[in-house]
Amino acid sequence: MSELTTTSTDICANCGKDNATNICNKCKMIKYCNAACKKKHRHKHKKDCEEYIKRAAELHDKELFKEPQSQYGDCPICFLRMPSCNMGYKYMSCCGKLICSGCVFANKGLTADQLCPFCRIPSPKGMETIERLKKRTEAGDAIAIGILGGYYSDGEHGLPRNRAKAIELRHRSAELGYAVSYYNIGLAYLCGRGVERDMKKAIHYYELAAMMGYVYARYYLGVYEKVEGNMDRALKHFMIAAGSGHTDSLKNIKEIFTDGHATKDDYGTALRARQSYLNEIKSIPRDEAAAFDEKYKYY
Q1: What is the domain extent for residue 246?
Q2: Which residue from 218, 284, 272 is spatially nearest to 246, judged by alpha carbons?
Q3: pLDDT < 50 stretches in the chain
Q4: How far apart are CA 275 and CA 259, in angstroms?
Q5: How far apart are CA 231 and CA 221, in angstroms?
Q6: Is this structure's pTM higher than 0.85?
Q7: Mean pLDDT across the chain
Q8: At what angle are helices 264-281 and 247-258 packed, to 10 degrees?
């Protein structure tokens, strides 16, 4: 029987003994009793090893370039799609809701002393922000955990800088579904913030964030592939990001098209996808909020 049809995961591929734990270093799919068995079986496994690696890469890319769902869903008040970028919404530490800037503005303007548009609790003051975040963290709120991790990373809001704790909180947040935390872990590995610099790990976490719908991670993966000369992969990333409203991704598609690495149809598709996204998220209250304060611009 070919190794590719073997279903057991703990039988030595060389001698057939059970409880094998020595994994093939390349494909990570086949196990052996020990290094001796691995060496004996190497010539038989070589072809299948290459096939495993190829199939794993294909499956990975299938997931990586799949159209992601919206990271934030819809605003719980106006029920319009939430903007995909880091603007146009506000996290409420009282109830744990993300509210679009249009609904925040319609409630009482973008002021510090307003009531939460959803639960009607007053905005926090001073250290009350941290107290609320800690309560939401205890309740397993992924966004609150991620925000708290950011405060520890930078030593903000009276918290000591503790980047090890920041990484720990961000891992927990990401595992609960907050893609931004995977992006921030990737950024930590890229810049060496609390961990050793490791580009491979940075890309790994950017990919996890992108697959969960975080548009900035998708954009930077496109930039990385473009710098590496992998224009086909860069284009795929930029096309997905442009469809989530990312302006710089659209600019990069235009550059790739100008340089002859994309077609006119590619650029046209990206333009239409971005416009469709804008039609979904646009509203008069959101425009008014953006006009009131530039940081609430939502595209």
Answers
A1: 89-296
A2: 218
A3: 1-8
A4: 24
A5: 12
A6: no
A7: 89
A8: 170
